[in-house]
Design brief:
With 219 residues, the chain is of the alpha/beta class. The chain contains nine helices and eight strands. The protein has one domain: TIM Barrel (Alpha-Beta Barrel), CATH 3.20.20.10. Bound molecules: pyridoxal-5'-phosphate.
Length: 219
């Protein structure tokens, strides 16, 4: 069943769009099934849970941290995390750099933009994103690489609203990409809105419940 869901979603994805299978709250056995069906990129939103799963599952999985970061826990994932989607302040970026350095790695990060109407969703303003990317302080962080942007739209049925939010992020993405060849990834779209995300220029979608089924508790 889970493997069928995966195949169906993959049929909907253009070649240039990367799928992150969001496995938060889901057991190892379910992740193994999706892995066996060919998926290699998985997303988690809690560092400790991701570390536990990393230790139990095949080592060719690329683990993406998609949740809000607790700075004091960055050290637990620094040796293996493949991409961090939810960076929303400079202090966190500094901590990622420090921990990456200890492992002699360069960790790829996305800056999370605040595009939703709800103020409960984390993220930087567009101005703050441009400031960070242009800052001298950033050039001093040799062990992080900002490779793009991430955004979450308002939780609503109003497709025009979602489209407006995704399109505004795409406009910023294009502007930054023109100046900075490292900016390649636009992480935008979840189970409920990934087709809209793709229509608006997403290059990476984060899909959980449409693959694994609904979660038992809200996170
Ligand atoms: C949980 C989560 C997702 C996946 O949500 P679904 O609606 O289950 O696809 C995507 N992105 C983030 C940041 C999440 O926390």
């Amino acid at each position: 069943m889970i493997a069928e869901n995966l195949q169906e979603i993959k049929l909907n994805l253009p070649k240039n769009v990367t799928l992150v299978a969001v496995s938060k709250t889901k057991p190892i056995i379910d992740i193994q099934e999706v892995y066996n069906a060919g998926q290699r990129i998985f997303g988690e939103n809690r560092i400790q849970e991701m570390v536990d799963k990393y230790e139990k599952l095949p080592k060719d999985i690329k683990w993406h941290m998609i949740g809000h970061l607790q700075r004091n826990k960055v050290k637990y994932m620094a040796h293996f995390v493949d991409l961090i989607h939810g960076v929303d302040d400079f202090k966190t970026l500094k901590e990622i750099d420090k921990q990456a350095k200890k492992h002699n790695r360069i960790i790829n990060c996305l800056l999370q933009a605040h595009i939703a109407e709800e103020d409960t969703k984390f993220g930087l303003s567009f101005n703050e994103i441009e400031e960070i990317l242009a800052s001298k302080e950033l050039t001093e962080l040799k062990n992080v690489n900002i490779t793009g942007l991430m955004g979450m739209a308002t939780f609503t049925d109003d497709k025009e609203q979602i489209k407006k939010e995704f399109s505004s992020l795409k406009t910023l993405f294009d502007k930054l990409q023109n100046k900075n060849p490292n900016i390649k990834t636009l992480s935008m779209g979840m189970s409920g809105d990934y087709l809209l995300g793709i229509n608006c220029g997403s290059t990476m979608v984060r899909i959980g419940s449409s693959i694994f089924g609904s979660r038992n508790y809200i996170v």
